Hints:
The complex is a heterodimer.
Chain A: E1 7-11, E2 20-25, E3 28-34, E4 40-44, E5 58-59, E6 63-65, E7 72-74, E8 80-82, E9 99-100, E10 103-105, E11 108-111, E12 128-129, E13 133-135, H1 139-146, E14 162-165, E15 168-178, E16 181-190, H2 194-216, H3 234-237, E17 249-260, E18 263-270, E19 283-287, E20 293-297, E21 308-313, H4 321-328, E22 334-337, E23 352-358, H5 362-375, E24 379-385, H6 394-398, E25 404-408, H7 412-422, E26 430-436, H8 438-451, E27 458-462, E28 475-479, E29 484-488, H9 494-501, E30 518-523, E31 526-527, H10 535-540, E32 543-545, E33 550-551, E34 555-558
Parallel strand pairs in A: 23-24, 23-26, 24-25, 26-27, 28-34
Antiparallel strand pairs in A: 1-11, 2-3, 3-4, 4-9, 5-6, 6-7, 7-8, 10-11, 12-16, 13-16, 14-15, 15-16, 17-18, 17-22, 18-21, 19-20, 19-22, 28-29, 30-32, 30-34, 31-33
Chain B: H1 9-12, E1 16-20, E2 30-34, E3 37-43, E4 49-52, E5 57-58, E6 61-63, E7 66-69, E8 89-98, H2 102-109, H3 115-118, E9 135-139, E10 144-154, E11 165-175, E12 178-184, E13 192-200, E14 207-215, H4 222-240, E15 248-249, H5 262-273, E16 280-281
Parallel strand pairs in B: 15-16
Antiparallel strand pairs in B: 1-7, 2-3, 3-4, 4-5, 6-7, 8-14, 9-10, 10-11, 11-12, 12-13, 13-14
Amino acid sequence: xxxxxxxxxxxxxxxxxxxxxxxxxxxxxxxxxxxxxxxxxxxxxxxxxxxxxxxxxxxxxxxxxxxxxxxxxxxxxxxxxxxxxxxxxxxxxxxxxxxxxxxxxxxxxxxxxxxxxxxxxxxxxxxxxxxxxxxxxxxxxxxxxxxxxxxxxxxxxxxxxxxxxxxxxxxxxxxxxxxxxxxxxxxxxxxxxxxxxxxxxxxxxxxxxxxxxxxxxxxxxxxxxxxxxxxxxxxxxxxxxxxxxxxxxxxxxxxxxxxxxxxxxxxxxxxxxxxxxxxxxxxxxxxxxxxxxxxxxxxxxxxxxxxxxxxxxxxxxxxxxxxxxxxxxxxxxxxxxxxxxxxxxxxxxxxxxxxxxxxxxxxxxxxxxxxxxxxxxxxxxxxxxxxxxxxxxxxxxxxxxxxxxxxxxxxxxxxxxxxxxxxxxxxxxxxxxxxxxxxxxxxxxxxxxxxxxxxxxxxxxxxxxxxxxxxxxxxxxxxxxxxxxxxxxxxxxxxxxxxxxxxxxxxxxxxxxxxxxxxxxxxxxxxxxxxxxxxxxxxxxxxxxxxxxxxxxxxxxxxx
Amino acid sequence: xxxxxxxxxxxxxxxxxxxxxxxxxxxxxxxxxxxxxxxxxxxxxxxxxxxxxxxxxxxxxxxxxxxxxxxxxxxxxxxxxxxxxxxxxxxxxxxxxxxxxxxxxxxxxxxxxxxxxxxxxxxxxxxxxxxxxxxxxxxxxxxxxxxxxxxxxxxxxxxxxxxxxxxxxxxxxxxxxxxxxxxxxxxxxxxxxxxxxxxxxxxxxxxxxxxxxxxxxxxxxxxxxxxxxxxxxxxxxxxxxxxxxxxxxxxxxxxxxxxxxxxxxxxxxxxxxxxxxxxxxxxxx
Lengths: 560, 285
């Protein structure tokens, strides 16, 4: 019903700050909104959860929040970042609102439903957008009726609805809203005073509309275009566990910057398209030029979806990961990364949140702090750093104002004392998130437990497992679902045996810190050597991290 | 909808509420719609209720403060035993028309996750958004769905409390467009207040919701109880009327359920199992 072309669906002025504009194209309702970073989003006007129009939702400037259940969708990639009914879960990564391409030019917002981008519309330089004129008539008829009309000073409109005359040039477009609904839009370029000219053209279009409507009344109104929304993927209909593939996203290092002593920040840009959505606490795997795979937490604030930002500290005892980034990686280099994965999810159904960061462990907590600040939820970030010059991401920290408390250069004893103060009174509806070096995490967890914090209220992420892994045991594993029995000899991990048999769960850090390779234990006694599971989870004995943990019993039955 | 769609047998052969009894005055005939069909009803001067679709007399049932009728051959209406307890206040809180299918209305009635967003400060409050695990099962040989141990944080748990607490709910779905919820009574912690939504499908994409309460309350007036219930429903109505599509999609892949939606998942399966097409978009075979 229309040529392959970009179609205007809104005026730029329709997109007021923090507003959601409801548009329509070929029977499809659109939610059109501008984020604070200027990006314009053209989405299907429907929350994927229960079909409520997103145009009645809230544009926070970085995310669109559904009015019904508070689901949040990120600027640009439209990925769902938070499902409030399940505050401890990361939303399945593939929950993503339908989006269409968008360009903004000539004071108009344009989109299209084609598989490939059509050529850009040729528009006069520096034109002004006309006031849109909706009318209940078939778009083809509107187009045919407009061709040949001659607005004063512009001469007759040709078949492409363009006219040029002494007054300047005029381009009209017919937005096919539905089979029987159209919107006339246009751009005019002229030296005449703008307001008077726009008024004159509006009068011209209104009289044209009256003629077209009189003609449309002679024919029966066409049936609206039926809207068949796309089905969600099969696994979403079943609400599955989150899984992740290996590093397969290609990104470019857009910026590399020293943000503290021995700490560089990398900003990673997609080569094409948008980056998948992430949530506070999420990390990515980065495949380094030297072949290593390393995990880094995203620092990103809500709506900061154009680039992933990570912080990397040079570790003197590094196995090469951080050194490779610090020494050999340059701006413009390409990297392979995984999609974000989140084993350190932030609950937002709490009345108070305490964030405790040690050194470079501040990175996921920065992302959490920004999200909590956006939500207007009370929190405090306690940041322990070795020295002033080791404080990273100063600008982001400054934005937190008095919700940031710095602790500089404390020895272990004073650190323990400070932690005691921070955690002295456990409150109901409060949560603690801690990330930092292993000794500090151990102390924090012990302090919290002593003060009476329930295990479930203390969330932690080790960025490395520094414990000695004992691989001396040998045992048998039975895989209940695959009906396979395998031997795990001394010196090898469960994960590597599973990988060899082709039944391995996804894995990432391979040192018992990230939780990706977790499997359910049906029978047998695990020998936990990870730093991911909480003490309560370890005691329950129904989960195991297959990369480092082993069995105390002769055999383990796993749900694989 | 220009054309009138015929209801499927399961929907057809049910009792439906068409009016609150207190609004029917002797000798004053009234009309309403059921499945797009015009229905007239009247209490004659002798006190007998008569319902007609214009060509024939329809069955009549006076129950739960409502007038019920059917265009098919209905079985017995489901039981709400609390309604008969002598010390309860039975209140017909009102009837509200909504531009969405009755099944969408029922699904919303079964949903706790929207409390802090839609009924802010009343049935829920931010940031307390979690829907905790609960049980849902089929009872009475598959004739009824029941969800139990449903806990949700409520800012003013009762008229006597000043702080928030988890309130327990039980939900029953004994009918494709009717549901009854139970929550602990502020007056007597050991007993439950019953609040019912009886849906009258006036069309495929419209319904009237009749709200009936059977509660323990010797403080508030009937008017106050009605206003409160209408206030709540008034918050739901604009959300419901912005749902697309207006009919309830039964294809599991049409929308994205989460664990909190266990009851509605079962409700949709139950409708599918009974071959319900009216007011729904059945899954493609």
